[in-house]
Design a protein that fits this description.
The complex is a heterodimer. Chain A is α/β, with parallel strands linked by helices. Helices cover about 30% and strands about 30% of the residues of chain A. In chain A, strands 11-10-9-12-8-1-6-7-13 form a 9-stranded mixed beta sheet, with helices on both faces. Chain A is globular and about 65 Å long. Chain B is α/β, with parallel strands linked by helices. Chain B folds into 2 domains: about 170 residues, HUPs (Rossmann fold), CATH 3.40.50; about 120 residues, TPP-binding domain (Rossmann fold, 3-Layer(aba) Sandwich). Helices cover about 25% and strands about 30% of the residues of chain B. In chain B, strand 15, helix 6 and strand 16 form a beta-alpha-beta unit. Chain B is elongated, with a radius of gyration of 21 Å. The chains are: A alpha/beta, B alpha/beta. Chains A and B meet through helix 1, helix 3, helix 4, strand 9 and strand 10 of A and helix 2, helix 3, strand 7, strand 8 and strand 9 of B. The structure holds flavin-adenine dinucleotide and adenosine monophosphate. The site of flavin-adenine dinucleotide has 26 residues of chain B, from helix 5, helix 6, strand 16 and helix 7.
Chain lengths: ~250, ~325
């Protein structure tokens, strides 16, 4: 079993969101970068759990990013995984990123490819589906459970108002969210081991992006909270009914 | 040239988020001087001709019951084929769970630029620029699509449903349906509840409620308001509530008209999933709770005293 886990780097969840250069670029000065939580907590951990069940499993991590992502990929390796590949490019176009990942996926003939639900900065939720199409593979979007029995997979995926259980044959692409696994913390052995695991850097293939960011804007500021005294909650109901007209 | 709108359904019913996209698509067609068509895969109980009232001229249907279960490859191939036959230049989805599964696949198949999570109509004055929510609701990005065919998925609850009069012509599409690669084993429905991602009102509880045994009042208030229930991450992590109720940076991002947060501190990661709500009400006993900064209305008080009184007041209002 060979698993490819797609890892992306995102600003820390508490990072201040601000823009520069006439609102065309994210102001990344002083921002702490982390592994995208969906990749770290769910897809990577699930891959590690599958390897724990079947130690012959090989896990490769892949990211499309410049060298400043190396600490992130090392941290991911500290959690688990056998080696990492970094495609040396920086892009916010999902199609461009997916095409780079597809190239690696084709060369490595993986049985299973995991992505996270979405990146918490650009919120595309797009890479998994694109990658599946480029590889001609079945795709389970937003899995909350994933299990394997030989090359048959069962996945539970979220649907509006519930969940469904699907069965499919590998190879496949699966995007993971909460439920698939539980967040782990890397241990000392993992951190030491990660230093010597291979991190291969490859150059991107030529791909024309399909979209580009023109500008960013911040949402309008809230006017401020209108407080209602605790001994008069009826007033809140009146305001929601008469002023906000929502109930 | 046309605008093709994917119509999503479950249990024979068209989803509310698709009615939003139909309204959005009809407006976009008018804006770009083209016609809006709907496309429905599978079967529904309602009369598709009535969808004309949202401003679309025709509804194309692939009337095949096996399509009531979505397989991303099967759906993508059918939509791509329909889009080609109808020379669709703009293809629209709701950015709901189905849209998230298919729109990116279709984008790769057609090499058509995708903007997912759009929050407004595109600016078509000079190029084609779509505004979308980024940084988990903390900002917007204006994204330009440079390809001939464009795909947009619209965030649920970010465009109002507009209906008038009109009847759509129903056209059956005789497309070949390939075998699905994924097999549906079972569905587990959360019965009778309002779907969180489509809810107009959401009542949400946090760790301040102390334990799952205290959720009765949250559910009662939600029921009275026709609302869905949600929770903060630790509440789901402690298994007080199911994980599909977890909203925030690492859970579901929602944008209801009214979000009522009870006993939730308002951590930045929680706000990331709810900050697109139109009106936020916060009930928290700590006046310094960060959530008050993001709120429109608030009560500083003990939820166990305040919420039952709110329930009584809503009951009175509904009775009057
Ligand atoms: C990477 C990352 C991702 C995260 N993602 C998410 C996410 O998606 N969603 C999320 O919710 N969190 C997320 N978190 C966690 C987040 O940081 C907070 O820890 C969490 O939101 C706190 O939940 P809470 O407000 O329910 O609990 P607490 O912070 O414990 O707050 C409880 C609140 O209840 C109030 N209270 C107590 N008793 C009463 C009473 N009787 N009446 C009224 N009020 C009362 C208190 O004053 C307090 O404000 C994430 C954290 C990290 C690091
Ligand atoms: N630059 C990248 N390199 C590797 N994987 C990525 C990259 N960007 C996104 N992904 C993967 O795709 C998932 C969904 O991202 P997105 O479609 O951008 O929201 C992420 O959770 C990652 O698993």
């Amino acid at each position: 079993m060979k698993i490819l886990v797609c890892i992306s780097k995102t600003p820390d969840t508490t990072a201040k969101v601000a823009f520069k250069d006439n609102n065309t670029k994210f102001a990344s000065e002083g921002v702490q970068w982390i592994i995208n939580p969906y990749d770290e907590w769910y897809s990577l951990v699930r891959a590690i759990e599958l390897k724990e069940k079947d130690p012959s499993t090989i896990i490769h991590l892949v990211t499309v990013a410049l060298a400043d992502a190396d600490p992130i990929i090392r941290k991911a390796l500290a959690l688990g995984g056998d080696e990492a590949i970094r495609i040396n490019a920086d892009s916010h176009d999902s199609y461009y990123i997916a095409a780079q990942l597809a190239e690696i996926a084709k060369q490595g003939s993986y049985d299973l490819i995991f992505t996270g639900k979405e990146t918490i900065d650009y919120n595309g939720s797009a890479i998994g589906g694109m990658l599946a199409e480029m590889l001609g593979l079945p795709y389970i979007s937003l899995a909350t459970k994933f299990d394997l029995s030989g090359t048959t997979a069962t996945a539970i995926r979220e649907i509006e108002g519930g969940e469904e259980t699907d069965e499919l044959s590998l190879p496949a692409v699966v995007s993971c969210q909460k439920g698939v696994a539980e967040q782990r913390i890397p241990n000392m052995k993992g951190i030491m081991g990660a230093r010597t695991k291979p991190l291969k850097v490859v150059e991107p293939i030529a791909i024309d992006p399909l979209t580009s960011v023109v500008s960013f804007e911040l949402p309008p500021q809230k006017a401020g909270v209108k407080l209602v005294p605790a001994d008069n909650p009826e007033e809140l109901v009146r305001l929601l009914h008469e002023e906000a007209k929502l109930i | 040239m046309s605008v093709l709108i994917f119509i999503d359904h479950s249990d024979g019913q068209i989803k509310k988020s698709s009615l939003e996209v139909l309204s959005y698509g009809a407006k976009l067609a008018a804006q770009t001087g083209s016609e809006a068509f709907g496309l429905l895969l599978g079967t529904v109980t309602e009369d598709l001709a009535t969808l004309g009232k949202y401003g679309i001229k025709k509804v194309y249907q692939v009337n095949n019951e096996t399509l009531n279960h979505m397989d991303t490859q099967q759906y993508t191939n059918l939509i791509a084929e329909a889009a080609t036959q109808l020379t669709a230049k703009i293809i629209l989805f709701s950015n709901n769970l189905t849209g998230k599964a298919i729109a990116p696949r279709l984008s790769a198949k057609l090499k058509a630029g995708l903007v997912s999570g759009a929050s407004a109509l595109p600016d078509t004055g000079n190029g084609f620029i779509v505004k979308k929510s980024v940084f988990s609701g903390k900002a917007f990005a204006n994204i330009s699509i440079s390809t001939d065919i464009k795909i947009i998925s619209l965030n649920p609850n970010s465009y109002h449903i507009e209906s008038g009069s009109g009847t759509a012509e129903i056209v059956q599409l005789g497309l070949t349906v390939d075998a699905a690669k994924t097999k549906l084993l079972s569905t587990q429905k959360a019965s009778g509840e309002v779907v969180l991602s489509e809810a107009e009102i959401v009542v949400s509880g946090g760790r301040g409620l102390k334990g799952p045994q205290n959720w009765g009042m949250i559910e009662e208030l939600a029921k009275l308001l026709g609302a869905a229930t949600a929770c903060s991450r630790p509440v789901a992590d402690e298994h007080w509530r199911p994980h599909n109720e977890h909203v925030g940076q690492t859970g579901l991002a929602i944008a209801p008209n009214l979000y009522i947060a009870i006993g939730i501190s308002g951590a930045i990661q929680h706000l990331a999933g709810v900050n697109r709500s139109k009106v936020i009400v916060v009930i928290n006993k700590d006046p310094e709770a960060p959530f008050f900064k993001a709120a429109d209305y608030g009560i500083v008080g003990d939820a166990f005293e305040v919420v039952p009184k709110i329930i009584e007041a809503v009951k009175k209002l509904k009775a009057s």
